[in-house]
Specification:
Layout: E1 2-8, H1 14-27, E2 39-44, H2 60-72, E3 76-79, H3 88-95, H4 97-104, E4 107-108, E5 114-118, E6 127-131, E7 139-143, E8 147-149, E9 153-155, H5 157-160, H6 169-176, H7 180-196, E10 203-216, E11 223-234, H8 237-248, H9 256-261, E12 274-278, H10 281-284, H11 296-301, H12 308-314, E13 317-320, H13 330-334, E14 340-341, E15 351-352, H14 362-366, E16 372-375, H15 378-383
Parallel strand pairs: 1-12, 2-3, 2-7, 3-4, 7-10
Antiparallel strand pairs: 1-11, 5-6, 8-9, 10-11, 13-16, 14-15
Length: about 375
């Protein structure tokens, strides 16, 4: 049985966070003495420059609490995160991480240099290039933010390790694997490689920030902050995500990283293999949690779509809002398919080529104005999908 600690935590008070996280680590059998003289990579979710109140990034107080626990036990915490978009300096300043790093005198890993991980058991890619900074730490504490996700339905522990991939290499993976099931399978390859691909295996513990998460059209500014009041801790990313999905009432069968994860040899094989300790899921349940509008039926239809015309009538498309768009063109800069171009004359929104669009929804994810939403295809409206 794999242990997952589910703990109540209603706010980001530093002392409360430290007590709760220590308690959770103890419950899953992690001895804090393992931090002694260890370089510990702290891997939060720093998607983009955003105020902590937006729940886009792992909260800086959450990150600070974990860093302090490592330091109190003789370890050296290192910020290891390949952020999603924008300059690293602006991301650090907006999310409140600059202040934390300065106050604690923390080291920030140099993330641009890459090194290969080899994972022969991978389903799709047996060699994955990640930031070399992860080779230079002794263990990894992954600090995912619980959020909905228009592409993978949910963003949690499995998805958080996507942030080990530097810069534009992330966009290339979206382009290489444009279907949610394929992309999720690759994310699981990445998780397996991080567990088994280092010459000397590194312990990875997932400490999920679900104190305030996101519902609706996450994981970027289009998502809506929602109080969940939970911290979820475990060594198995699939198990952690399964517990998180249960707390908010999401159907785990709609989350490809969980369903495909049950079939991988490095993760639990079913919900029956998970021992939830601390609090019961029923006692922590969030009522009326709003999932993403991107339907799971359209996710599965993608695999059979070849014609761009058919795709445009059965799969949700990103749709910019003239009243909110400022023509900053961040959507254009992150689009892996090159499907977005400058606005046409007299138009107030970028021009989308929906025949080229692969429906990865990166434009929605990174739009700082939350100006892009999902619009159903014509057939979806007719069939009520």
């Amino acid at each position: 049985m794999t242990k997952v600690a589910l703990l109540k935590c209603r706010d980001y008070d530093e002392d409360l966070l430290i007590r709760t996280i220590k308690d959770g680590l103890a419950q899953i059998g992690f001895d804090l003495a393992q931090f002694h003289k260890a370089r510990v990579g702290l891997k939060p979710n720093l998607l983009m420059a955003a105020n902590p109140d937006k729940a886009v990034a792992t909260h800086p107080s959450f990150f600070k609490a974990v860093a302090k626990i490592v330091m109190e036990n003789g370890g050296t915490p290192v910020l290891t995160e390949c952020h999603g978009f924008g300059s690293f300096k602006s991301v650090m300043n907006s999310t409140g991480y600059s202040e934390v790093v300065k106050e604690l005198g923390m080291e920030v890993g140099k993330m641009d240099e890459i090194a290969p991980l080899h994972y022969p058991q991978a389903k799709l890619i047996k060699r994955i290039d990640i930031s070399k900074a992860f080779f230079d730490v002794d263990m990894i504490l992954s600090l995912p933010k619980f959020k909905t996700h228009g592409f993978t339905y949910m963003s949690g522990a499995v998805k958080n390790l996507f942030g080990t991939i530097p810069g534009l290499r992330k966009a290339r993976m979206h382009l290489r694997f444009p279907q949610p099931m394929e992309f999720s399978q690759w994310l699981l390859d990445l998780n397996g490689a991080l567990l088994r691909g280092f010459d000397k295996p590194k312990k990875i513990i997932h400490i999920m920030d679900a104190v305030i998460g996101q519902e609706g059209e996450g994981p970027g500014p289009s998502g809506t902050p929602r109080e969940i009041g939970a911290i979820i801790i475990g060594s198995d990313p699939v198990a952690v995500d399964y517990v998180a999905s249960g707390v908010v009432g999401l159907d785990y069968k709609k989350i490809p990283t969980i369903m495909l994860g049950f079939k991988r040899d490095f993760a639990v094989s079913s919900p029956e293999d998970i021992s939830i300790i601390g609090h019961k899921v029923e006692d922590m349940r969030v009522i009326n949690f709003q999932p993403t509008k991107s339907s799971i039926s359209s996710h599965f239809l993608r695999g059979w779509l070849v014609s761009p015309t058919v795709k445009n009538i059965v799969i949700e498309k990103p749709w910019p809002n003239e009243e909110k768009c400022t023509l900053c063109y961040k959507c254009k800069s992150v689009c892996p398919a090159g499907a977005i171009s400058n606005a046409l004359e007299n138009k107030k929104i970028p021009e989308y080529n929906y025949k080229k669009c692969i429906r990865c929804y990166c434009c929605i994810e990174f739009c700082p104005e939350a100006a892009i939403s999902l619009k159903k295809g014509k057939l979806q409206w007719l069939l009520g999908l």
